[in-house]
Specification:
This protein starts with a strand and ends with a helix. The chain is α/β, with parallel strands linked by helices. Helix content is about 40%, strand content about 15%. The structure holds NADP nicotinamide-adenine-dinucleotide phosphate.
Length: about 280
């Protein structure tokens, strides 16, 4: 293994330290920021992610709120949960944990959220603000990946960045974020996906490759230029084992690589709390 690790933990800690300062200031004014989570169905990994978000809230001093929506409650139950959090003055920001089970319309629920309470930055109005480079909540995993790259001094200005995957929660918003103007961005971004034949031809040319696919070990050493920066945003659970999009052996070729555990995940949670506390400042 020759690559250096892009460890997400110190990045998340730095973000959370800033969040904690704001939480303490808000509490001194009588405002306790609140994060809400909506969990639809009983997906094991999703329940674990929600638990982690609540634990981090407790550690940093946010109040957390939770609504379970069962599959039997259906879309009407999900929309009722959204309406409940929209109306709850103690909830400054909330998320609908995704993916939701088949039969639920995630986009309809997203559009029903109050955009000012959209802690995931995925409401259409907030995605639009990101495109327009107006201030607003930025999707958490893309924001976390950008923070990791900034933290480790990886300058993206003018660099060839290839994002593998174009999903609405990760690949597509990440491509917008990194190609925006400004610090931690200004990259020349290409997005490749399942309809691109020979996509290794793109990744082999890239200074930075980011997996946003959700297929274990999809990115292999042959697909990577020596010394490149390689980030696994996509992950898959196989039982209790977490498998990143980037095969571990890529570490023999890359200059930087996210570790199997503790890469992007901790920064996603930190950005979620940041978005929530930013919303609480405007309560
Ligand atoms: P998604 O909407 O299903 O997107 C997956 C993307 O991968 C699609 O664009 C798809 O291409 C592409 N793809 C699938 N098979 C491919 C192949 N053989 N070759 C090339 N591209 C292929 O999923 P998502 O919501 O964006 O999530 C993607 C991954 O990111 C998942 O593992 C998810 O768990 C992870 N994620 C992680 C976090 C986090 O906190 N770390 C947050 C969000 C997402 P097409 O568009 O052509 O179908």
């Amino acid at each position: 293994m020759t690559a250096q690790f892009l460890d997400g933990a110190p990045v998340a800690d730095a973000v959370l330290a800033g969040v904690k300062v704001k939480v303490d200031q808000l509490k001194a004014k009588g405002v306790t920021p609140g994060l809400g989570t909506i969990l639809v169905g009983e997906d094991g990994p999703s329940a674990g992610y929600v638990r982690k978000k609540h634990e981090t809230c407790e550690a940093i001093g946010l109040k957390s709120h939770h609504i379970d929506v069962s599959v039997e409650d259906g879309q009407a139950g999900l929309l009722a949960a959204v309406d409940g959090f929209n109306a709850n003055p103690e909830v400054d920001g909330y998320i609908i944990q995704h993916p939701v089970p088949d039969g639920f319309d995630f986009n309809e629920a997203l559009a029903r959220m109050s955009p000012t309470k959209d802690a995931d930055g995925l409401h259409p109005a907030n995605l639009g603000k990101m495109v327009l480079q107006e201030s607003g909540p930025v999707p958490c995993t893309p924001a976390g990946i950008q923070a990791i790259l900034v933290h480790y001094g990886i300058d993206l200005a003018g660099k060839n960045v290839v994002v593998v995957g174009r999903g609405p929660t990760l690949g597509r918003p990440l491509a917008v974020l990194l190609s925006n103007k400004g610090d931690g961005a200004d990259a020349a971004v290409t997005v490749v996906h399942s309809r691109v034949p020979n996509l290794a031809e793109y990744t082999k040319m890239a200074d930075v490759v980011i997996g946003a696919v959700g297929i274990p070990s999809f990115i292999t050493p042959e697909m990577v230029k020596p010394g490149a920066v390689v980030v696994s945003g996509g992950i898959t659970w196989e039982g209790k084992k977490l498998l990143p999009d980037v095969d571990e052996s890529v570490g023999e070729v890359a200059g930087w690589i996210t570790p199997r555990l503790g890469g992007v995940g901790p920064t996603t949670v930190a950005m979620l709390l940041k978005n929530t506390v930013d919303a609480a400042e405007n309560r």
